[in-house]
């Protein structure tokens, strides 16, 4: 899997593209903002995933933050408590 910077280079800095450097700078900013948006965690206070949809979760255990996979069943998290954030699992 490519790093974010490798993806940016492959997408924007291709040799077959003959754009002005300032245009590449704008595309780079848009690319990175898109990556940041895609990697955002959703607060459980704002929204919950669909029932029975596996998602990545972030939960607190005292001062420790843990990550796991869980899903909502009958309006509650199936296996965890203290879930603070979640995000969809990308499937290809």
Strand and helix map with partners:
Blueprint: H1 4-12, H2 21-38, E1 42-43, E2 55-61, E3 64-70, E4 72-73, E5 76-77, E6 83-88
Number of domains: 2
Quote the average pLDDT.
80
Strand content: 25-35%
Number of strands: 6
Largest sheet: 4 strands, antiparallel
Quickly list its features.
alpha+beta; 2 helices; single chain; 2 domains; two-stranded antiparallel ribbon; 92 residues
Report a brief summary of the structure:
This protein is of the alpha+beta class and about 90 residues long.
Question: How does this model look, in words?
Answer:
There is one protein chain. By secondary structure, the protein is α+β, with helices and mostly antiparallel strands. The protein has two domains: 4-38, no CATH class; 42-88, no CATH class. Helices cover 29% and strands 28% of the residues. The chain has a four-stranded antiparallel beta sheet with strand order 1-6-2-3, with no helix packed on it. The chain has a two-stranded antiparallel ribbon with strand order 4-5. Strand 2 (55-61) and strand 3 form a beta hairpin. The protein is elongated, with a radius of gyration of 18 Å. It starts with a helix and ends with a strand. 7% of the residues are buried. The model has no long low-confidence stretch (mean pLDDT 80).
């Amino acid at each position: 899997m490519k790093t974010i910077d490798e993806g940016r280079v492959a997408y924007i800095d291709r040799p077959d593209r003959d754009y002005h450097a300032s245009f590449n700078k704008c595309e780079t900013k848009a690319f990175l903002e898109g990556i940041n948006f895609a990697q955002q965690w959703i607060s459980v206070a704002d929204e919950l995933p669909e029932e029975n949809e596996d998602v990545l979760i972030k939960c607190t255990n005292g001062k420790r933050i843990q990550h796991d996979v869980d899903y909502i069943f009958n309006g509650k998290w199936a296996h965890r408590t203290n879930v603070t954030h979640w995000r969809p699992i990308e499937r290809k």
